[in-house]
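We treat protein structure as text, and this decision shapes the records that our systems exchange. The remainder of this section carries one protein's record, kept here as part of the documentation:
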Amino acid sequence: MQGSTAGLSDRAHASCARQALSGERVYALHLDQPSRVSLRVAADYDVAVYVRRDCGDEVSELACNDDLEDARHAGVDVDLGVGTWFVFVDGYDSDSSGNFTLSVSARPTGPGCRVPPGRRGRGRSPTAADVAVVEAAAATATSCGCGRAPRRGYPRPAGAPGRW
């Protein structure tokens, strides 16, 4: 999904990226079952991405990255349980803001969860058939506790529980 941090206020800080001192875009991710979630961000600025259990609580951060391939790419792979998680796309310095693309993939984890036959492969990103957790409807907010932006719909696998 496409987004921008241009013009947003700095209301959240991270454990990486020198605390991520620019304005951030926050996404709510709802999981109906435990999942291994992979987040990748490509941006036209020095970008950071981090995940929290509680939107407004820095201590609840589970993962943070600001330089995956280089300063304009960030990514985390994290095991998340059932519930709502908050994904932050932020910038390294106070002047690090702009346009970005956020990519999300997920695989169910735990007993009874498996990748469909023929879908296994080393180094391969999960496909829509692997996801089985994410309904693709993005809910964005400019910061924790603020009103939501309009929803954007994305196709989801038939019968997949959960929602964005």
In short: Residues 128-131 form the longest helix (4 residues). The mean pLDDT is 76.
